[in-house]
Predict the structure.
Amino acid sequence: MENVSMNDVSEPIFGMLFNSEQDAYDYYNSYGWVMGFSVRKHFLNKSKKDKMTITSRGFVYSKAGCWLSDKRDINTANPRAETRTDCQARMNICLVDDGKYKCCDFVKEHNHELHITSTIHMMSSQKNMLDIHRQEIDLTDDSGIRPRSTVELMGRQAGGIKNLSCLTQDVRNYLRTKRQRALTYGEAGNLMKYFVTQTRNNPSFTYSFQLDSEEQITNIFWADPKMIIDYAQFGDVVSFDTTFRTKKECMPFGLFTGFNHHRGCTVFRVDLLYDETVESFEWLFENGITHLGHMMKDGSKFLTDLKKCIYQYDVKDEFKTAWHNLLNEYVVKDMKRGNELKAEFDARNKMPRLANSMSIIQKQVRELYTPRIPECYILKRWTRGARTMVVNDSRGKEVEQDVNLDCTQRYKRICLELIQIASEASNTIEGYNLVKDAANELRLKLGNIRINPIDCPDILIFPDFSDNVYPGLRLKHKEKSTRGGRRLKS
């Protein structure tokens, strides 16, 4: 018998030929979609010569067979419902001489009611999560949308939930599997992978970690571009707090925080410490200070003189002399109070001159709003232009918070145009075929476009993260304590 097209699904008959075992399963599964039953694979026989070639295969309905009696049913409060009815509906295939498979047995009759059209998408064999569905699930999950709302959104886009090939539980299973695969490299490997990925996306991302004698990670710190920009703009007052701790290992979670021009809390840097000892804090401040930029960048003369002033003088008088010399050399001596008093005197001693003759109202306004705060004492961080300053990192390069901003804007504009085109093309078959052909041609042209390194001379190329990156690297764990739930003291 001639080969049957997969688009022409009809009742299988004895002698029907299929190109492969998978084609036979797809055909019988499509037939089950039309009739309203789910399909599962049954027995499998392979060739005795190569132990690889499938010689015969059976496909049955999901209700085929029956469960054996379970002795634990007596003690079960809510036993599971029966799902097997010993249905005999099946289709068996066997290998023929030309390498194709022939339908050698087919039973049509069922001993139960079949599913209706509106519930076919719930059957196990008919569930098939497409790539476009995975992309939408990833996007909604990153946006904080729950699986139930995700399925509702995709159902509306598909014209109804019955037109989807996945359910809410399938979305939850997909997300759980995705998270499990993300932990393939272990906790330390995944952390390093995250750092490498962020550095590849934006070279201004900064991180560092400390290893002990056993090559185990003890202390870590990291700062993304937004943290670096926020510190440059609002880092005049910084608070360091290690109150928070990880739940499992009780490791101190340090935060360098401050306030922005809206009185909102801003994070300047994040640290994960092994303990709160002097050695940990020394590494934290000495290695983490270089990413702050300005005079504190690594290799600067100010940083060298500051370390010399702190570490090389044991006598009190020598330290005070070196400290005053440092303040005078870099003009960072605190003269704010003296200047503030002088400005206060000038504000009360001098009156602002008006262009026109002063009326009674102008005199009253002058007396009411004078003295005023001098502009030299109004910090830029409290003004509307707080975000306008250009920030450079420790390497002297400008820090960009979102390096993909141009790409994101182009994506939004293209999406609006393509959605309008899809809406108009879906009204007619001719429009649909036209857009489909144009999309295929456009996809081929886009595949030939590559980034030219000459056009992007500043782009940094990082090696792909693999199992060979940081081999054997792991976090150093503390021994479990038998004490109560109070905070441990180092």
Summary: The radius of gyration is 35 Å. The chain has five domains: 17-68+83-126, 131-182, 203-329, 336-387, 403-431.
